[in-house]
Design goal:
The protein has about 450 residues and is mostly helical. Helices cover about 65% and strands about 5% of the residues.
């Protein structure tokens, strides 16, 4: 089917109307504001976490055992701040925990109760000469604070026993020195270990989670908008008037383009807010924390990944937008929209969950079935981007997935146009597989 100038003019008019109507609603404006704020806050999350941790990581040690040989403050400081161990005095500002000695047990307990101290470690001796420990904290006994207290008590007790046995602190340090362990990929050209590898992997997983969640929300939110728009026009009988000025094909393409432009406008606003927030992290950290706090861009947030995500975002959204429009044409009542779009929503959510679990390691991203899903057009916008970010797929893989997605969009647009052409004139019928097949067979 060839597209004429009249088709282009009518498609442009429909797209313009859909864009203006959607972009001027309070829901759209409020959602844009919320997404922009969420993107900015996500970009500045490391600064916020640093500020919260700075205010809530003061630990005091009270020594009631007068003959304690080991220095509990130094032991606890090394345990809580392993990266700062052996550093110079200038490294003090980089410590995550501040450990001090308490000379007044009751006063320190009151500070814990008031929230000025995160925890207080009280070290005493019992009648048999063994050291006993009490951790005062407002946290639960299953919290990380309690776990650290137990670990600290074990380290201090062992150091004290060794000191009483005549083992010097220098000998203890050599005895308990951690061995060097390197985590290496079986690929000799790749490395997955090294200092800071785990935090960086967590940051990369968080980036992928945010990108995949944004794509999920865009498809479900705007897809439902398209389906509801079609159903609303049918229920108000406006569709009959609109069809006098434009063909069903022109309406379908115009609606998809108009809502897609509104979605892309929000997408651009979110991207700009995220980039500005990330680039200003250093300055904001300096103002809030008094230092840049070593905040770096996640290695997973590369220009290549952003370009790939943008391409898959646009193509994936267009594919589902056409399908949501066709589904909306099958119902005449607004309350039936949720039912008819449910299968597509399940597919979208399924692809999102697989990609998210693969990103955080709950699923093996190298499993054959996960790799196979990265080629399936309906879920490839999630799974292929996740594999690209993990370094398990290359540009050629992405190009093939994009080509398959583009071919699927053409096929889906043809099918959707036939369903839409017949569906917009169907009134009083409940959505069913039979109705969908009839619409597909009779569409023209």
């Amino acid at each position: 089917m060839s597209i004429t100038k009249a088709d282009i003019a009518n498609i442009g008019a429909v797209a313009r109307r859909e864009f203006v109507v959607r972009a001027h609603t309070r829901t759209y404006l409020l959602m844009t504001l919320v997404l922009v704020l969420a993107a900015a806050l996500t970009g500045l999350a490391p600064v916020a976490i640093g500020a919260l941790n700075r205010d809530a990581t003061n630990v005091a040690v009270y020594v009631g055992a007068a003959d304690l040989r080991a220095d509990p403050v130094a032991t606890l400081d090394v345990l809580l701040n392993p990266k700062s161990a052996g550093g110079s005095a200038s490294d003090a500002s980089a410590k995550a925990f501040t450990v001090t000695r308490s000379n007044d047990l009751e006063a320190s307990r009151a500070e814990v109760a008031d929230g000025k101290l995160t925890a207080l470690l009280d070290i005493e001796r019992n009648a048999t000469g063994e050291t006993v420990f009490t951790v005062y904290t407002r946290e639960r006994d299953t919290s990380s604070v309690a776990a650290i207290g137990r670990q600290a008590a074990s380290s201090i007790a062992i150091a004290d026993r060794l000191a009483h046995a005549g083992v010097s602190p220098q000998e203890q340090a050599a005895l308990f020195a951690a061995p060097a362990v390197t985590i290496q990929s079986p690929d000799p050209t790749a490395s997955v270990g090294g200092a800071g590898a785990l935090p960086q992997q967590e940051a990369d997983a968080a980036v992928m989670f945010a990108l995949e969640l944004f794509l999920l929300l865009a498809i479900v939110l705007y897809g439902n908008w398209i389906a509801q728009s079609v159903a609303e026009e049918k229920s108000s009988r406006m569709m009959e008037i609109i069809l006098a000025a434009a063909t069903p094909f022109q309406l379908l393409v115009g609606k998809v383009l108009g809502v897609s432009l509104a979605a892309l406008l929000q997408f651009a606003a979110v991207i700009v807010a995220s980039v500005v927030a990330i680039l200003s992290e250093g300055q904001v950290a300096t103002l809030v924390l008094g230092e840049a706090a070593g905040i770096d861009l996640p290695s997973g947030l590369t220009p290549g990944i952003l370009v790939a995500f943008s391409v898959f975002f646009v193509l994936g959204f267009v594919l589902f937008a056409a399908l949501y429009a066709a589904a909306g044409s099958l119902v005449s009542r607004m309350e039936d929209v949720t039912q008819v779009v449910q299968p597509m929503t399940l597919v979208v959510c399924g692809g999102y969950l697989v990609a998210m679990y693969a990103s955080i390691g709950l699923l093996d991203s190298r499993a054959p079935w996960v790799v196979a899903l990265s080629w399936v057009p309906f879920v490839s916008p999630y799974t292929m981007v996740s594999r690209l970010a993990a370094g398990e797929a290359g540009p050629l893989d992405a190009a093939v997935a994009i080509a398959l997605l583009a071919i699927t969009i053409v096929a889906a647009a043809w099918i959707a146009s036939r369903v839409y052409a017949a569906g917009v004139l169907m009134y009083g019928q409940k959505p069913s597989i039979g109705a969908m097949w009839k619409a597909l067979r009779e569409g023209r």
